[in-house]
Amino acid sequence: MQMPVPDSKVLAQKSEILARLRTVLPDNAVISDPVETRAYECDALAAYRCPPMLVVLPSTTAEVADILKICSEFNVPVVPRGAGTSLSGGALPTADCVILGVARLNAVLETDYDNRFIRVQAGRTNLSVTGAVENNGFFYAPDPSSQLACAIAGNIAMNSGGAHCLKYGVTTNNLLGVTVVTMAGEIIEIGGAHLDAPGYDLLGLICGSEGQLGVVTEATLRILHKPEGARPVLIGYDSNEVAGACVSDIIRAGVLPVAIEFMDRPVIRAAENFTHAGYPDVEALLIIEVEGSDAEIDSQLARIIEIANRHNPVALRESASAAESANIWKGRKAAFGAMGQINDYICLDGTIPVSQLPFVLRRITEISTKYGLDVGNVFHAGDGNMHPLILYDANKPGDLEKCEDMGAEILKLCVEVGGCLTGEHGVGIEKRELMNAQFTPADLTAQMNIKDVFDPAWLLNPAKVFPLKASESRRQA
Amino acid sequence: MTPTSEKDLAELVAVAKNPLEIIGGGSRKGLGNAVSGDALHTSGLSGITLYDPGALTLVAQSGTPLAEIETALAAENQMLPFEPMSHAIVLGNDNTPTVGGMVATNASGPRRIKAGACRDSLIGVRYVDGHGQVIKNGGRVMKNVTGYDLVKLMAGAHGTLGVLTEVAFKLLPSPETQATLRFELPLKDGLQKLRDVMASPYDVSGVAYRDGVAFVRVEGFEDSVKYRAKKIGGDVITANIWPEIRDAINVKGDVIWRLSVKPSDAFAVASQLAEQGFETPLFDWSGGLIWVTSGDGSDAPRQTVNKFGGHATLIKGDGHPAFHPEPAILASIATGLRAKFDPRGIFNQGRMA
Predict the structure, then answer these.
(1) Other Cβ atoms closer than 10 A to B132
(2) CATH no. for residue A259?
(3) Cβ contacts of B54 on chain A, cutoff 8 Å
(4) Candidates B172, B173, B311; nearest CB to A194
(5) A248–B54 CB contact, under 8 Å
(6) For residue A435, is it within any domain?
(7) Are the beta carbons of B153 and A205 separated by less than 8 Å?
(8) Domain count along chain B
(9) Which CATH number does the domain housing residue B202 bear?
(10) Which among A95, A98, A376, B24 could disulfide-bond with A266, CB atoms 3.0 to 4.6 Å apart, if both were Cys?
(11) Do A189 and B352 touch (CB under 8 A)?
């Protein structure tokens, strides 16, 4: 993976930059010791590593503004970092950069049940947002698999989704407002507890901009009252295609579950060995969850099961208890980790029209045979967001490159059938060069023009999202 | 000018010498500040490009009449989730809304409090920028974080960043049935009732107040609707009042304001406006959306909102900017964006600013 050559002028000024940062931050908020900065050398795309020049850990919006003013003055690239759980390399440093970690910005600022929102500092973890309101019966809906660790700041940067976004939407649909600091150090308030702020939808623009337009320090988030109950059903089929057809039929029938998750045999076996969730050993497994009162759940599940039965399932089991439901989800949420126990893998994130599921699953099998690398499929089937896991051996020379080539072929297939490169993980560095497969040069220029407005010097997370060649003249200007 | 293809439209824009006013069906003409320019009609770009009921997605050309889309969706028991309002009644015309105009104004209705605004269901756009280039963003899938989200930026931009040529939506299955519950309550208690049901687990999809009555809507399968209606209480009414609330048909007058506030501020905002001779005939979104009429022609609604936080749009009437003024820094970003999208400033110049 190519990254820009570090700016020698910046590196030469390291001690001066460090001294200036120390004037605006407490001692323990600036890290320059190479042993300690190594902890920030990668995110969850761990195949790529590079220790940053410096790390800063601000605790207030004002400190973030001071940091960005200093970095602007010295022309230092800044890579914002939430919890470092990005699967696309969104927080990968360059050797000449300052990592701006938001982990210490973790306070709850305001909870308002009457108006159903919470305002938090953006370094707070996703699950702890729900933790702050669940005693009052509320929750924050977006639930990425990494929700125990991942930060709201990163969720906003990547517009993260999760298993339950079929009903509740992704981050951008649950975000009401942000405090964001521009590279020039200006503090901007966008949106708030009221709906549909006037002017252009800058909130929608910031969300998913991968930390390239500003550093989000505070967020106003929609909270919802928990449903009375929820219950999953497991449905097993002896072919991926039949499972895909079942998903499409359920959606067409007007039943909208909160989640429809899909796992194929390699993933089912790995997850079962890892968590003993009680999954049947089948070719394809669907986890379908519905919500409501007991009676409402009964009636929705009856409709779903009736549709499922038309496709001759080889296994079908409704959860009989809260403990069983938790176990079923534990297996699914641990699926990536379980696959990691078996092998190194890269996780793709393309989205396709749901109606193309059977075709795409068949093609993935063919591509897997062609490259000689195994694939496990685990994904959000209801919205077409696929997560093929391609297994490779990191110790085998050339295997990672082969794996990446195979990933690129699958992602191009997603685009060809009307889908996209990434549904919830973001472009980062991982899919940067593939952007040309989805967008024309004019499409990409329209997007890069926006960065020009917010960050004319291209200092914020500059080597991400856009093909390096496409952004080159802007980064070097 | 009425181009009949995206390509024609792009060529037309590339050589345009004069400012353009983009016109869809004309049903929302009058929203935003007045614009002068050559009329550019999108009615020649009409028709559903793709409808995939099994994937809950629809793509249509921007000049397609909304009614055509709603008919196609109804045949499959599906719908646009955000229940778009028609502005025709409030603005006093009988023109037909197009899907492009709906997107350009981010028009949403009562279900916005549950299903999000138009911008939340919009998943893809194609548009012609100020250079006459065709640009696409988003696509036709429900989950997509590939690159910046220009889709949301185009929703509600009132045609000032480009001419939409094609728009794509995620859809929802239409509910099997609905129930509307009625609570006769004074304003303060009625608005509190709306907030209380929004904070319940009963998944309500409409919460409005007018003429001394709080209305609550639940939608879904029949047994579920019955169950939730019983839990919420109130008197069940059979009439479907939601199209009336959606289109604000009881909001009449030469001056009409639309306020967006934090729901719990609604009573105080309404009370202060009443003292100044304004009326508040309709509250939607559990009080977060307030329709204001009458008054003395001043911008008191805007001044009042400023005390609480939120924004006030002048939907009908003159003498004040249509949109709530933005803080200087946001206005300067908006100017910067406009200069990139439309460097010659030819699209609906001045409509928003």
Answers:
(1) 15
(2) 3.30.70.3450
(3) 248-249, 251-252, 354-355
(4) B311
(5) yes
(6) no
(7) yes
(8) 3
(9) 3.30.70
(10) A376
(11) no
- Bridge-partner residues for A191, per DSSP? A177
Which of A375, A395, A416 represents a domain boundary (last residue)? A416
Arithmetic mean of pLDDT, A115-138: 98
Task: Give the model's confidence band at B54: pLDDT under 50 very low, under 70 low, under 90 confident, else very high.
Answer: confident
Residues in B closer than 8 angstroms to A353, CB to CB, are 52, 55, 57, 140-141
For residue B308, give the chain A residue with the closest CA: A194
- The amino acid at residue B87 is H
Closest CA to A430 of A278, A210, A222: A210
Q: Which residue from B263, B328, B264, B271 is spatially nearest to B300, judged by alpha carbons?
A: B271
My answer on whether B230 and B292 are in the same domain is no
Mutate to test the interface with A, among B145, B228, B285 (most CBs of A within 10 A): B145
The pLDDT tens digits for B78-103 are 999 999 999 999 999 999 999 999 99
- CATH number of the domain residue A365 falls in: 3.30.70.2740
* pLDDT (0 to 100) of residue A251: 87
Q: What is the pLDDT of residues A1-59, one digit of tens each?
A: 899 999 999 999 999 999 999 999 999 999 999 999 999 999 999 989 999 999 999 99
Residues B231 and B312 in one domain: no
CB contact under 8 A, B337 and A113: no
Do residue B38 and residue B118 come from a single domain?
Answer: yes
- Distance from C-alpha of A356 to C-alpha of A402, rounded to nearest angstrom: 26
Residues A180 and A50 in one domain: yes
Q: Could you please report the per-residue DSSP string of A212-250?
A: SS-EEEEEEEE-EEPPS-EEEEEEEES-HHHHHHHHHHH
Asked whether residue A163 falls in the same domain as residue A188, the answer is yes
Contacts of B129 in chain A (CB under 8 A): 446
Per-residue pLDDT tens over the stretch A296-322: 999 999 999 999 999 999 999 999 999
User: Which residue among B174, B330, B337 sits closest to A188, beta carbon to beta carbon?
Assistant: B330
Confidence at residue A477, expressed as pLDDT on a 0 to 100 scale: 74
Same domain, A367 and A234: no
Query: Is residue A340 within a helix (H) or strand (E), and if so which, with residue range?
Result: helix A335-342
| Mean pLDDT for the stretch of residues B26-32 | 95
Question: Residue A447 is nearest to which of B129, B150, B330, comparing CB atoms?
Answer: B150
